[in-house]
Amino acid sequence: MLSIKNLHASVEDKEILRGINLEVKAGEVHAIMGPNGSGKSTLSSVIAGKEEYTVTDGQILLEGEDIGDFAPEERAHKGVFLSFQYPVEIPGVSVTNFMKTAINETRKAQGHEEMPANEMLKMIREKSELLEIDRKFLSRSLNEGFSGGEKKRNEIFQMAMLEPKLAILDETDSGLDIDALRIVANGVNKLRSEDNAVIVITHYQRLLDYIVPDFVHVLYNGKIVKSGGKELAYELEEKGYDWIKSEN
Ligand code: ADP
Ligand code: MG
Ligand code: MG
After folding, report:
1. In this structure, are residues 133 and 159 in contact, taking their beta carbons and an 8 Å threshold?
2. Membrane-spanning residues where (predicted)?
3. Contacts of 157 (CB under 8 A, 6+ apart)
4. How far is the CA of 26 from the centre of ligand 2 (A)?
5. Any idea where the domains of the chain sit in the sequence?
6. What is the mean pLDDT of each run of 10 residues along the chain (248 residues)?
7. How many Å lie between the centroid of ligand 2 and the Cα of residue 36?
8. CATH fold of 2-247, please?
9. Which one of 8, 10, 16, 40 would you pick to mutate in the ligand 1 pocket, going by the greatest count of ligand atoms within 8 A of its CB?
10. Closest CA to 96 of 123, 56, 76
């Protein structure tokens, strides 16, 4: 699904990613952990194609295709989803209407016709039931006055509707409460399948109590310095990051 080879990236002439190698196969969930400032959010931004980052070396392949030169929208249309892509508040535009527009724009960019209204409604109904999202929520104005949990619910709903091949959830928000964690975890667990892959980026082990990853990687100083199974997350919980820092 995703193959990252020797990825180097800079921001404002400062090298942040210093040779990342990562293989993510369909059906897998990978967690990327690491101390603050190690480059986790930079990695997700670079995969999504955010323009303030410059790739100076290496490759990002999605299903074998080098997407390194693609604009963020093109990557999204190819099936890359990054959480918090649409954090904007849009008064007067409901969660549902925003979603309809996003879906149809994606389809147009992929050369498909708009989704017929009845099919759209059916999909909205199915996905919202799957994620236990109630109707009242769907008619609220996008992100207006949303709590942390509601923002997460909206984000997971977007992910469910867009059915990405590769979903990257960057859980930067240290203020995530248990409810919000459960919403994210529940959504990921319901949406994970043999046809998609998920990368969960988190500073905290706690999220991984709910989303059980197949692989855990530790990013430190712009490199993946350790990889393992889910037990690595527990080891980090117990020992912190200092031993990683002293080894590298
Ligand atoms: P993490 O998500 O692991 O906490 P980040 O990727 O946010 O780490 O940051 C890694 C380093 O890159 C930090 O030193 C941060 O200050 C720097 N950095 C990230 N994005 C930018 C940016 N847009 N402009 C300047 N520096 C940045
Ligand atoms: Mg940070
Ligand atoms: Mg971050």
Report:
1. no
2. none
3. 95, 99, 127, 128, 131, 133, 187
4. 27
5. 2-247
6. 98 96 97 93 95 96 96 92 73 89 87 92 93 90 84 88 92 69 87 94 84 95 96 91 86
7. 5
8. Rossmann fold (3.40.50)
9. 16
10. 123
